[in-house]
Write the structure tokens for this entry.
Amino acid sequence: MYVQVHFKSGRSFEKIVDDEKCLFAERVDGYRESILRRGTLKTGAPYFVKKLRYKPLIETDSPFSIVADNVLHEAVGFLDVSEHFVILIALTSENEWVLKTNTP
């Protein structure tokens, strides 16, 4: 599990989510995602949760990367907590079953 803070720097919540998808998809192989849930908390803060599936890339000393044999699964949640930043929370597993039993 990991957490990241993304500063908006004038970008909307939706733009932060889209930018993160584009950057992440460029750094892995076989990227696939599906939307699990989107909505608004009781406080009015919007959130977005998606499921990812990908193969990590292994960096080398050459300009090329090696595609790993294993597939990783992630449940990623974005929470629009203020006008200045968005929080990303991710649960990562090599077993998709873990995510099916531990995500909303």
Notes: The helical segments are 13-26, 96-102.
